[in-house]
Queue: 3 jobs
Job 1
Amino acid sequence: MSVNLTLLIVMGVLYACGIYLILERSLTRVLLGLMLLANATNLLILATGGYAGLAPLFDQDIPSEDYNDPLPQALILTSIVISFAVTAFMLGIIYRTWTLGRQDEIQDDVEDRRVARTPSFDAEDDADVPMETSEFPLTAVASPGTAAESDGETVTAGAKELSADTAALEESPGSRNVSRNINLEGGER
Amino acid sequence: MIPVLAVTLVAATVAPLIFARIGRNAFFILAAVPAAAFVWLLFQQGAVYSGQAGFTEEVLPWIPELGIELAFRMDALAWVMSLLILGVGTLVLAYCARYFKDRDQSLGVFGAQMLAFAGAMFGLVTADDLLVMFIFWELTTVLSYLLIGYARTRLSARRSALQALMVTTAGGLAMLIGLIILGTTAGTYRLSAILAQAAGGAGTSAGGEIPALATGPAQDAVATAVVLILVGAITKSALVPFHFWLPGAMAAPTPVSAYLHAAAMVKAGIYIVARFAPGFTDAPFWLPLVLGLGLATMLVGGYRALRQTDIKLILAFGTVSQLGFLTMVVGLGKPDAALAGLALLVAHALFKAALFLVVGIIDHQTGTRDIRKLSGVFQSSRALGIVAAVAAGSMAGVPPLAGFVAKESVVAAFVQYGTGKDSGAWCVVLLVGLVLGSILTFAYSARFMWGAFAVKEGVERTPFKAIRPAFLAAPAILSLLTLVYGLWPASVDGWIQPYAALFAAAGTAPDAGPGHLSLWHGLTPALGLAAIIFVAGTVMFYGRNVVARLQQRVPDWIDGDRAYQHTIGAIDDVAVWLTGRTQRGSLYFYLAVILSVAFAVPLTALIIANKPLPGGLYLVDGNSPLQLIAAAGIVVGALAALKANKRFLAVLMVSVTGYGIALMFALQGAPDLALTQMLVETIVLVAFVLAMRSLPPELRDRTGGKYRLVRVIIGIAFGVTMIFVAIYAMGARVATPVSLEFPRLAYEGGGGLNVVNVTLVDIRAWDTFGEIAVLAVAATGVASLIFIRGRGERLRASSKVAEGSVGRRIGVVRNSHDGAQLALARKFADVGRNPWLVAGRTLAPERRSIIFEVVTRLIFHSLIVFSLYLLLAGHNLPGGGFAGGLTAGLALTMRYLAGGRFELSEATPLSAGTLLGTGLATAAASGFVPLLLGGQVFQSAIIQVWLPVFGDIKFVTSTIFDIGVYIVVVGLALDVLRSLGAEIDEHFEETATMAPPDAGPDEAAEAELETEARVTAEAQAASAGQAAGAGRSPAAGQAAGAGPAAGAGEVAGAGRSPV
């Protein structure tokens, strides 16, 4: 397999310049870097085709070794047009960034910084949960003829004040968004 | 079994509909499903127990490639388990109908989950395929998560549900690995086959038969598998050290606790132990794990149960304790113990489910489960008290109840085991621990009854609503069964005997066949131990205050819950730390890391391999020495692009490299590439200029300082690495390139001389089709970035646009350099001259170039014809759809640059979207039409016809594909021009008309009133004209109205026409 150093050295230079550019903050430079990288890659693929040869236009009398390898060429052709589309898309992004923020620089992601500063405490995981000893805490309040009188007692349900009777009717094993304003222990309120 | 499963799962899916229709009574309908299955199960008894085989079996193929079958087998163990699952399931579902209210949230989903859970449990105990069993196992885990988290608005429910899920899933994963190891080692995933193998030639009568699997050649793998499977069982059945999730799961509604956490799900772990015990008790670690953890769990659970003040938690810790007890007995692997273990399992399911249901009733009727608040419940409802007393008595082991019978046989088994000839000192430890655990059980049973029902001094009598019979029915039936079981244990004994016989058949203890369950065995050591348990338990109960004080002094050694919290907290900490270190939010950082890895790894590999450079290296290709010049040009261009501090200069320098590469292509023997590259470079350059014109011309370098050095190093290292990687990679190529065949294939198969083109449209047509799809996506992306909504309507006809109204320069100060230039341009501009272009006259005079217009006029059509030529000739000569499409795009670019956006609109009767769609459809059609004609996808055909004038015509159908490519590329170019060109033009003009100019509006307004007025008037006339034209956007109309903001309302009112 033959290796053309000229192609590879040019490729190396293009890669180096392209990498240098995409490490920039300016979006335009990043795009230029990407274009250089695309060019470098095309050269790399071209180099795999070996020696310069004849254009791959078929002729019965020419042995296939004499052509330049057509397969890398087909791959490069695809790559060229795709790079065009990608470049156009990036241009759209740069324009949009400019119209929205008047800058074409890559900003650091503030959300990531915030995440890094987040303490590991999470209320869902780590907050203290009060012991619950009933699924029906309001039953006693609402049962007729029981010690705890229900007349006039209210509970806070969300933003509303409900009479204890109504609240107890709505009380269920599932819904416990009800906090009581009364003392269950009895009598001494 | 498969129909039962299917019916259950289908009923579960339709359950929410029934609930929506009839409310909570739908639970009765749901209960009918397991009830029917229960009846079916009773009829199966004959087949299972009287048949020769001792089981019934159903097998459906599922994934034959992996050897996975929907295999189900009903044997004695599965039958007993199913009896509990379906029976208790029926009762609990019926109980739910009175426990919940019609208005409770998502009742339908809850009912569906309960029923599905019953189905999953049934599937778990009957599955005979390891992986199918695992699927049901995980199903129960997920359903348990959903059911515990039923009250999803409560933090405690959510957290407990998640905790249970995490613990049981972790165990489940371990079990999966174990099952796979086991299945692979045994060569089958059929549970029954594996157990037969494990028993090692079951049926031979000789004692001391060696089990094949546990002690065979693969014994290490089997031992590992068994430990992993046991981990699954331990987590599921809440054994120490994973016992904490079960008390946490008491956040579930009480029927769920009764079913999942007493009768069914937690028994799944016991079931696994019972299922594998006949073959694997000899595996190392089995007995230490099962007996050690079982005993520890029994003692810890009982100890903790004595400390609880919530009656539900007393039961929960009691369940933990009993699960440990069960594991120990079932896992011992002796016939007597197996018999006793299953007997205890049945008894436990009956009494524990009943007790949970009783707790649910108490909670429902009084509103509390706290023993410090409950008082006098027995007096309020004697029936409930009796039901509870029977169940609790069974739990404590009081004769003549089921618990006594079961516990007697357990103790007897352990006494026999402990005094047998193969016993050791630790058997005594087991027996003592067992008795201790039973004492604790007795004590907490008494504490439960006392706490729930007794009248307590100083506590007000708890109000208690009357219980409806339907509510009490379920626990009452369970308690009745407990009593019946205790009085007539023979039937249960009959159910279990075949299972216990498995151990005898394995010949592990030939002298000891399984005994029988019975209420009265005579004066045995077991009875004596029972008496000790009663006495000591009663003492502990009466001395409960002393016990409580003692317990308070003892620190909590084992607090699994806290350990779990710490573990999760540590994982959180690590996650936050790791995220903070790696996820910096800086693209530069990410790229630097990625690229450094990208060069460091190959470079290290190259250095370590230390291979000599391959041969065949040459600096200059003898066939094309000119490459050196092109190379120099490219390198200079690339380096200049780095240094350039003006935007357009940098772009130009990148273009230099692009053109240089086009030259490289040409020299290398790739005319197609050279052509395409030239065209693309040109269009890209135009697109760049169009998109960048609103950005400031300077390209400032903000990433300076130390980072620059890092960038240089990474860049150079990467480039050098790529060079060497390429050299070695190419040097390593030995095979003949596949493309040597391409020229012949292209000519004979593809009917074309241009090998590259035929490769694109025929040999690798799929590839190209994918590519044009990407082009369409990218084009749409560009359009959406600029237009935001849609692709913009087509512009109106240029004849309706006011002359010279497009692209006016507004707000230029007259005395400035720009102003002078503008004045000069206007002086020479002749708006009224003959138009060379259709819409040329719409352009502002200072924007027009007569030469450009004439040239465009002359070559536009030639270019289009040329592009068509490239397209059609491309099959045989350089060209093709890509080059043709790009040429047409270039022609459109010329029209746009020369005549403005209306000219572009006039030049393209079709929208870009239509073009892209048509192109893709054409290409796709050329792919699937051959399929309809009986060929292959993208197959091409060569059609030769004779036409007058043209003579012989050779048409290859792959040209149609190329036409599709052509249209897509034209669409892409058009989208770029319409978005980056025309639409940005409009943005410019809108902002210029709506707002005063950026540079010094005040002075400008004062000093240059005349110019301003004139220009604004013109702009307004244009806006008004646009507004008059049909269907302009409201923004433009508003702009016309807001025109006076520029400071010249009166003049605008004069409606002066453009020059």
Job 2
Amino acid sequence: MSFNPQISHDIASLDATTHQLFSRLVKLNPDTNKFIPDLAESWQQSDDKLRYRFVLRKNINFHQTDYFQPTRYLNADDVLFSFNRMIDKKHPYHTVNNQTQNYFFNHPFTAFLSEINKIDDRTVEFVLSKPDVTLLANLAAHYAVIHSQEYANQLLQRGHPEKIDFQPIGTGPFKFKSSNSKGIVRYSKHENYWQPMTNIENLIYVKNPSATKRYTKLLSGECDVIAYPAASQLETISKNKEVVLNSKSTSNVALWAFNTKQDQLKDSKVRYALSQAIDKKTILQAVYFQSAMQTNTLLSNQSWAHKARNNSDIFNPEAAKKTLVALDYDFTKVLTILLPENADVFNPNFHKTAQLIQANLADIGIQSEIVKLSGSTLQTRLSNGNYDTYLTGINVHINDPDSIFRPLLSCNSSPENGNSSRWCSYKTQVLLDQSLTESNFAQRIKNYYLIQDEIMTQRPYLPIAHVLRLDVISGRVKNVEVNSLTGINFQNTIKQDLN
Amino acid sequence: MLSFLIRRLNLLFITALILTIIAFIIEKNVVVNNTIIDTSSNNYLLQYFSYLINIITGEFGYSALDNQPLLARGLMFFASTIELCLLGLVFSSLVAIPLGVLGGLFRDTKLDYVIMTIALSGLSLPVFWVGVMVLLLPGVWGDLLPVDGNLSLVYEVPSVTGFLLIDTLFVTDQYGLFAFFDRLAHLLLPALVLSFFLTTEIIRLTRHSMTMVMRSNYIKAAYAKGFSRRKIVFAHALQNALPPIIPQLRLQLSTILSFAMTIEIVFNLDGMGDWLLSSLNAGDYGVLPVGMLIITSFILFFSILIDILMVIISPIMRGSLYANQ
């Protein structure tokens, strides 16, 4: 595991790095959903919407550790370094730790960022290749962290550039102290942090794969916060008055994708009928317990573009069977349900979900076959299109509808990158592209409403559930901020009764 | 005495050589990027000698995961395992020796049956299962003792000797005795589970040995002289009944170690078992030969050490000083 949120995107890594070790140029105020300054003091957009100028805050200190002593404050070079590593293919750090194969490493920025210029020590300019309103959202996302250029240069001189991701230096409220092979990571307080700090001197993360043991440790006071309690224990935990069960709805959604290029799934009515056949309520109870919310839309209800009217349960197997018979559907053909082997944050048990879907399909007379694959075999199968349906989901990192619609619905997105329904429609594509450059907010919302209506009728995906992010926090600890997109934040956390 | 020592060391030498051959075969066939076998020649014998020279000089290679020297890491984790075993041994001796002595003294009485029932049930419960059951205790009794990990995370104790009980006492002064007691608390339940099996074993051995001694002629003679039963037991029987248990226990050494390794995995304690399992899971097969060599050479050394010790403390064993001719 690396300590760089630019390259490690799993939830555990993000929780342990993005808010603790690093800061970003801007951040999102969780209450108002507006962008507020973080390392950047202010910013301006040019009239042609292609240039954004950011003025950096003064006197920001990087971490002082036994492996790096900064000699200067944060300046424009650090910002340039952090972004050029991702977007500039000739950058000496671009290939460090082999990140070129990682789709998400540079994806959000290469798509629209053409260059970054240093105006003076405290001013940087982002030049876009085309107008894109998601720049700020991307800059507030977990991967837009600012590294120290001075540290990177020192490492390069010493011949160990790879250490930048494993002995990180940032500007966040905590600094890296040590980590070991058993997954124990220690941070200590960053004394020169530019914002008011908490009473926490040491922040310790420990990896423990057993949910029951995690809860035991929380109860015995050996730890203060645990992530992902066992879904089956939620009821017991919520009854315990000494701990707080924090649940946040996320935009992460579990999906069942229909391969729209497959002959018998080409008709949107067939896809709708199959969607009607699935009993999501049972899936929710059997797989997620109380850790997710049933849904019928791709966007979660916390998104500003969410069209609430669409969110109703359509489960109706009789109607589904009637439609299929009327459409002359070939019931003799076996439908494949492709699924990944390992659980993901959006589905704790793919296999069980698939079995339930299989049973639902059998009820309306469709035979199906579960195909479980992993790694490169799965990728190959997805890219050659040899599947009828695929059980998947999407992990959303920024609160912008484009970040969920584009991977799932754009013609340019491959099945491995999210578009496992192989959906490509002119109408959707035009709406997607228009919304990106649209600075009239009302019009943007309208465009996304249109996309949602289109998806509702065309049904390339059956959304199953929006997953909750669950954390259990001890009563001794106050002010733990959990952001469902970017992870947990201990900056303002106070631990009472320290002895 | 000298010829006895030579005979023992000879045995040690030959066994160790066989073990290195096994380790060499593992290293050669399982470990992908081994650095300690010189593969410039195709001759297996030459390759084996290059391997042998490397391990004699302490060069066991480096972990593929964190680039740490395997031998140093292995010994450190093995020390934790030994720590657990020793604590388990202390617990079980405290319980089992008195029970075994009582069982031997009152053989075939109700007391004896009760003791043997306890012993038998301890023997029939699989250690792994007992461990998992103990893990559930916090749910039943509340959090009396920790069931997971080495040490509370607030204590940052570097491993110097590998024996955390010693490290917590001497390496880090700032925690006072808190870290030591915390470590002890973390070891209590695992050691208790380990002592389940050991207790059974020691009760049976002590009881048998006690019975044998009590039937011997010199005890009968002591009775005939009119000594009190207490004096006979404490002055004559005990000191002759206990030493024969030690070589018997030696035979259980590898069983004890493997149980300790299982328990480590259940309780997520640092140690040989946990190290081997997690390294193998991560694909670091270099630990296999190193782990095997450490464990086997420990058992080997220890057996011979006990042999020598027995010769020194027990007159009966001294007969083996002279080779049978």
Job 3
Amino acid sequence: MWFTLDNLATAHDTHEDAAHTSTGLSNVKLGMWLFLGTECLLFGGLISTYMLYRGRVGTGPRPAQVFDIPFTSVSSFVLLMSSLTMVLAVSSAHKRDDKSTNLWLVITALLGATFVGGQVYEFTAFYNEGMGFSTSLFSSSFYVLTGFHGVHVTVGLIMLLALRGMLKNNKVPGSRAETVEMIGLYWHFVDIVWIIIFTLIYLIPA
Amino acid sequence: MAIIEPTASSEASIAVIPPATPSSAMGALKRPVATKGWRQWVFTVDHKKLGIMYMATAMFFFLVGGLEAVMIRMQLALPNGKILNADLYNQMFTMHATTMVFLFVMPMTAGFANYFIPLQIGARDVAFPRINAFSFWALLFGGLFINLSWFLGGAADGGWFMYAPNSGPIFSPSHGVDFWALGLQITGIASLAGAINLIVTILNMRAPGMKLMRMPIFTWMSLVVQFLLAFAVPVITVALFLLSFQRNFGATFFDVSAGADPLLWQHLFWIFGHPEVYILILPSFGIISEVLPVFSRKPLFGYPFVVFSGAAIGFVGWGVWAHHMFASGLGPVSVAVFSISTMAIAVPTGVKIVNWTLTLWGGKLWFTTAMKFAIGLIVLFTIGGLSGVTHSVAPSDTQQTDTYYIVAHFHYVLFGGAVLGLFSGFYYWWPKMFGKMLNEKLGTWNFWFMIIGLNMTFGPMHILGLQGQPRRMYQWTENRAGEGFFNLAFWNLIASIGSLVLVVGVFFFLVNVFITARNGKVAPLDPWGARSLEWMTSNPPKEHNFDSIPTVHHLDEFFHRKYAEDANGQMQQIATAEEVLKQLEDNADTHIHMPSPSYWPIVIAFGLPVTALGVIYSIPLAIFGGLIILMGAFGWALEPSTAPDTDFDPPSSGNTSKDVVHVG
């Protein structure tokens, strides 16, 4: 959702100590968890729509005719590995090791970009095989669901690169490690959603 | 917005705000510093100013929605109405409902929540003040965007529930539905951001000792509402996206001829839509749960029951949505399940009504205008609730579906419930917000005209509906009106006259506001003998709310600071409100850093309607809007929410002092 753009901002909105809050969690962290909770409902709605319509191909291609499961498996693997590198970035940030943090953020962003590139390639291939956005209910709901996920990854990329830039110029206000951690939370969420989407769309036959 | 340094004496009530120097900090623009004129409002992040702006916006849309309602009633007053044609009539009822639900009641409750939650929990602002400002501007721009469609080819005309196929381009060829879908998307973003903000505020920013079960009921009910919003809004977001993709990019999600399932829309809409009705009503329940104890001179009867019944409504509210779809052929099992869950949700609501009634029981009742509206809510909401229970019986509901009986029901719960609660809140909290008392005499006129008007308007609709007059028909004819007591012509005319009586009632309120602003009576510190923390501040509250954050020991903390039991177990006054306040002032914090104003919330919010216009008319414009949002997000992220100490003139010694209190 468009609103994820605001996360970057959210992550910097306060430098209040977690110890000062009633729950002991910092405002930013609590807010981020709530936001991810709302995202579950967003993807829940999109996944339900896809599950309802995945068999309705009309005259267009069926899922099995277009999906290239080995290719998508590789790009899924790449995305999951980016979660690992994100964890390493957060860990370095907690150790105040700017150099490693920077390195892991760059690697995470590269892996994420590879995934998005793979999705662009996949969409192009499907389109060339005759599966346009409005070809069938299946194709529309497929593109909407995976497209929304792709937008989420892209927003994550923007946040990663912005974070790296700010880190480099020493301009991350407040607690740095927490900012990295928040973007990490978002990034892991997007990866977990992809596991569900990948299973439901590609692995379970319609 | 600034560093506030109250002196430690009793004159501390005049806070010293040192002039701030604008610096660009790390953002692209220099920070706004104006403390006067329109700039102090447009760039503010103060929850109280934003609360007032929410309320003013909501009041404006209330008048717009009311005008639409009056035009509907004028059209139906006499047979063969000629005021509106069929097309315009469709637009009118669609926009009336959309405006009243999304642009009046929701922002009004958001305004109350914004203003009073931080005060009630003993905080100086909300958790994310800039997100708060963003929410307001997104709501305002979203509301204006939806209404822009009136001037660009016609407004949405598919009903506020926007069922397929009426939402599709064949039955709704104008851009109205596009404006509607994208505009609601924008107000949805506002609601979502606001919900997260207020949940974090309530959970995280309570004063010491303010346990959850010591929170005022209004804050509790708002908390439930924010959770409902946080999880209901994403569902309508999905539905609206699907609709926009269908209308703008050729998808067929709700097109039966393409093999789609139009019930998908209905499910998505009502999974949002039913929690939505509790989103509308629970804040008013919270308001009157504050008002009734104060004017009964008794604590709220069964506080935990009121809290948990509110939470129960919040939970069960997720399991009743399909009762809006009984007529759509869901099958007997679904109908039975949703029928029973709908009956079940009447129970926690009934618990609340019992609690309010027993709060009144044996109390020393003081019939102020706020109290009258609160009692009006109990009575009229109960009527609406009872007709609601008749809908839960599915066979009876299939008779009532799409008749005026439904219209009667939801106006009794929403006008008789939600709106009366809001008016109760106006009269109760006006002195707190503006330091002046609303005129009680005009208030009485306001109350009685509204009560009579709303019963005249919506009461006859029960009869009209049971006689079979369909909802949304734009004309009726004399020869089908029937005879005797059930004559449709008679009751339609009564309902239309009633709507004018309602208009007079609202007019009295506006006059009251105007007169009070010009020469209203200055409010004493504690005009009602109130019980909760928001009254432990000056009228209106200072920018930083509390000179020192109170430590809370009781439910109804303010009351317990004023009264204590004597040896005989009788409540005796031990302090006046002035003395309680002075105690806080004497312990004032030095150097309170309030969050600083910012340009970015309004910039990002402005990007949203630009993007939406682009989606309808030209993709490059949408990209331009997206760039505004992106730029705003970066500007925002690079600007610390509280100005650095060096940014003040003279620079504050905040860095070295341990007394500095950072807010937000």
